[in-house]
Amino acid sequence: MKIQHATHPDDLAALDDESVRARFLEDALFVDGEVTLTYTHHDRMVLGGVSLRPGEQLALPVPAELRSETFCQRRELAVVSVAGSAVVTVDGETYALSRGDVLYVGRGARDIGFAATDAEPGALFLASALAHTAFPTRLVPLAEASATAAGATETANRRTIHKHLHADGVQTAQLVLGITALEPGSVWNSMPPHLHDRRTEAYLYFDLPADHRIQHYMGTPGHLRTISMSNLQAVVSPSWSVHFGTGTTNYAFVWVMAGENQDFADMDQVAITEL
């Protein structure tokens, strides 16, 4: 398990580009035949990737750094299918996930495994937060997630926001999670930008062709840094940081938050002219 330490906003200006990437970017979450995990001290989230070859089965490890008997002893977990299809097993119960589906696994689950179908490889994004109580394991297909249209074609940010885990839907202890998909011709996400000082947020970009890139923005409104990102790479945005981006074509991304509250609307808007 990789450990990612917390960063103060005043430290950001002193970091060179490679140091910014090292502190906030997860560029190797998906390795064929492996479960890869990163522990970030920003709200103590764990982010991970599962890359499954056809017919392959993998188990969720319990890294020594967690100091727990099982991964979910003190944690809840979200499993997001971002490519292909897969089957997730939780304490003997099986759940079939297609692209865009999310499985919520509550605190106390013991045995968690992943399997690809025989026909195609699968990729699963993992996001975990500390949990003070246990809620039932629930599968949320993409078609059943709450969907809201946002943005406009004229400003190149027309998108659909799918909310899978949120206060008015599937109960969680901390996690708020969904998928945003941009329409063809739109490239800006989370624009106009915002801040929420009470929650850390991470993005996993996917559905991005191999020869295209995302420019992800972070930092304080008056002092922005950019990180160039490829398909299936994730970035952590601390609670003090804006988080928005633009691509060279349209794409999708998983957004996941953990922190003080689960109020999706608890954010401080930042005017474009303040950037």
From TrEMBL:
It catalyses: 5-dehydro-4-deoxy-D-glucuronate = 3-deoxy-D-glycero-2,5-hexodiulosonate. GO terms for molecular function: 4-deoxy-L-threo-5-hexosulose-uronate ketol-isomerase activity. Transmembrane segments: none annotated. Pfam families: KduI. It is an enzyme of class 5 (isomerase). Keywords: Isomerase, Metal-binding, Zinc. Its cofactor is Zn(2+). The keyword Transit peptide does not apply. Its EC number is 5.3.1.17. NCBIfam families: PRK00924.1. Belongs to the KduI family. This is 5-dehydro-4-deoxy-D-glucuronate isomerase. The lineage of its organism: Bacteria, Bacillati, Actinomycetota, Actinomycetes, Micrococcales. The gene is kduI.
